[in-house]
Design a protein that fits this description.
86% helix, mainly alpha
């Protein structure tokens, strides 16, 4: 009788842990997805700003933007607003 209850409790505990683990995993995945989406959006906005201000963007700079952190992209974006030349943005 007690052994049966312990087995039921153990299964319930394991199931609860699996559910919590899945929920935490989903939450982490959503946060990572949001971060990646924001980074991609900021990168595209920077590229659009640079193209409007300076014309065609060299492939090297596009690749540099694609591999940059969100913080770096934001710094470049701010620099691009006042820069006189494309090279000034990436100093």
């Amino acid at each position: 009788m007690l052994a049966d209850k312990l087995e039921v409790w153990a299964k319930a505990y394991i199931a609860e842990g699996e559910i919590k683990g899945r929920q935490e995993g989903k939450q982490e995945g959503r946060q990572e997805g949001k971060q990646e989406g924001r980074q991609e959006g900021e990168a595209l906005a920077l590229q659009k700003l640079l193209a409007k201000r300076f014309g065609v963007i060299p492939v090297e700079i596009t690749a540099q933007i694609a591999n940059a952190s969100l913080e770096q992209i934001e710094q470049w974006f701010d620099a691009a607003i006042d820069a006189h030349f494309l090279t000034d943005v990436f100093k």
